[in-house]
Design goal:
alpha+beta, single chain, 23 helices, 4-stranded mixed sheet
Length: 545
């Protein structure tokens, strides 16, 4: 067994060593200006195919890592994502004989004393466990039995040792400057270690079962706890199909747009309001019944956001709206996006330069070459700054990006801005302060800096007589302004996230991620300016009273 473990470590380490050497050689070509995007994508596709072959042969941690990378559209080209996506649900089965031995060892009796009509072909096979159908003798219920793969715990532990070596290798590359590799390694051990203990998955499932007990649109199967162990889970069988099975949706006359809206609301509530969220919501784990009920399965990978982190994000957005760049950078540091060696002043300048450009330039008529020049300047400014994506937020991003992919399949024309607005507003007001009161404190500063409202506003607020005469008009104006500010807040969120994504894309470096973040920011700004004109129009109406 020791010889097999050493062989696994050798294969994994040498594979990653080859990857590092090839990517380093390509980066040198990039620096010399002789490398193309097509060459980069071809190289990444070649590496992805080699990785997939080894993952399907060795299984274990390589499968889990490949599944994680398969949804990282922010890091990898589409062809690579497609190649790695086969690792999500095409893992070879171990076979019923091996699974039966584990089942009987865990239950302590021959399986025929507990269940009958067992389907010896696995209905699902993943990196950690396999699922078989059966019928309980005690009550005739049809159940799904999830059984851990043979020797998977020893395999994963061996792979952790191999990845420890790989992490040490990566520390000698430029990646170490922008990524807390030790933190990522610890988070990987923590999350996957939890997956190896099915009792933890059971606990997570019961948490979500209680959370959605009163929600008729969501169903989580009942678990038979007396038949659940560290290596076996037994739950009610669910007749359902993947939520992306469009033929099934059409056959059962399920409105795809309405389904997408329900799924978006479900996911947004999990991700924004703290507590636990499903961190592996791929189509195999999010299914749909013929009556339109959403089924959530497999809670082995569950992420968690703290109330403190979410409050910090709210503060960052508030600081962004009031152009308080120092508070933005402090918030990023509090969220662990900045490594200790980061130059906060450089990052502040990069943010200020980008936002100032947006505010002072008419994007509708500006030459695209000017936009490119500004983005290049920002690139140079933050080139050497160690910005990272904290490990805990990586799983947040994994869940969000996976769900976004599902939503695009269900409804390619889905309007995430409109759907997200009420949820985001509720989230922003979670600390007990309403948006109206929040904006009373920063409204004048915000208006001066972002919307260029005439200086008469200050005089107007100081004249009680005029204010009393215009009370009725002000009431209507407040209603309109609040709605516009809500919409601007959402666009500010999108713009900030786009900027952060662009900065992260440069540090990686990842040209696709950098430009996509920039494009998102610009598009959000278009809408921001349009709403700004409406706010100015409403503000001027008050002065005509």
């Amino acid at each position: 067994m020791k010889r097999i473990a050493l062989f696994r470590i050798w294969i994994i380490v040498t594979m990653f060593a080859r990857f590092i050497i090839r990517l380093y050689a390509f980066s040198r070509k990039q620096q010399q200006g002789v490398a193309t995007t097509e060459e980069y994508e071809a190289l990444m596709l070649k590496l992805a195919r080699e990785y997939k072959r080894n993952a399907l042969r060795l299984e274990g941690l390589l499968i889990k890592l490949g599944q994680f990378l398969s949804i990282r559209a922010d890091l990898l080209p589409p062809a690579v994502l497609n190649e790695l996506s086969e690792l999500v649900d095409r893992v070879p089965t171990s076979g019923w004989d091996k699974s039966r031995a584990i089942l009987e060892a865990e239950w302590g009796v021959p399986y025929t004393q507990v269940v009958k009509d067992v389907g010896i072909d696995a209905v699902a096979s993943a990196s950690i466990g396999e699922v078989y159908g059966a019928t309980l003798l005690e009550n005739g219920k049809r159940v799904a039995i999830k059984i851990q793969r043979p020797n998977i715990e020893k395999i994963i532990r061996t792979d952790f040792r191999a990845m420890r070596i790989v992490t040490s290798m990566l520390k000698r590359t430029s990646l170490a400057k922008s990524t807390d590799l030790d933190s990522l390694y610890r988070q990987m051990i923590f999350v996957i270690g939890d997956e190896l203990n099915f009792q933890t998955e059971l606990k997570n499932a019961l948490y979500f079962k209680a959370k959605y007990a009163d929600n008729p649109d969501v169903y989580i199967p009942d678990y038979h706890e007396h038949l659940c162990t560290n290596r076996v889970l037994t739950m009610d069988w669910v007749d359902a199909r993947r939520i992306t099975d469009l033929a099934f949706l059409k056959e059962n006359e399920i409105d795809r747009s309405a389904l997408a809206e329900r799924l978006f609301t479900l996911a947004a509530e999990q991700l924004l309001f703290g507590g636990q969220f499903h961190a592996d919501p791929h189509p195999g784990n999010v299914q749909i019944r013929a009556d339109g009920t959403i089924i959530l399965l497999d809670f082995g990978m569950v992420g968690q956001t703290t109330a403190q982190d979410m409050a910090t994000i709210r503060n960052i957005l508030q600081a962004f709206i009031s152009l308080d760049y120092d508070s933005i950078v402090d918030g990023l540091e509090d969220l662990r996006f900045l490594l200790p060696t980061a130059n906060k002043q450089n990052i502040r300048q990069a943010l200020e330069k980008a936002v100032t450009f947006y505010l002072e330039t008419d994007i509708d008529t500006v030459d695209t070459r000017l936009i490119e020049k500004v983005l290049q300047d920002i690139q140079l400014l933050v080139k050497n700054e160690p910005i990272q994506l904290p490990a805990e937020f990586a799983f947040f991003g994994r869940a969000a990006s996976t769900l976004l992919g599902i939503l695009q399949i269900l409804d390619p024309k889905i309007d995430l801005f409109t759907l997200g607005k009420p949820i985001v507003i509720e989230w922003l007001e979670e600390d007990g302060t309403t948006l109206q009161n929040r904006y009373v404190k920063t409204g004048i500063n915000y208006a001066k800096k972002l919307l260029n409202v005439p200086p008469l506003l200050d005089n107007y607020l100081k004249e009680p007589t005029r204010k009393r005469l215009s009370e009725q008009a002000m009431f209507q104006r407040n209603l309109e302004s609040k709605e516009l500010l809500h919409r601007q807040t959402f666009n500010a969120i999108v713009m900030l996230l786009g900027l952060l994504v662009g900065l992260l894309g440069y540090i990686r470096p990842d040209e696709w991620l950098f430009w996509s973040g920039g494009v998102v920011s610009v598009l959000a700004y278009f809408n921001w300016r349009r709403l700004g004109r409406k706010v100015r129009h409403v503000a001027r109406q008050d002065f005509r009273v």
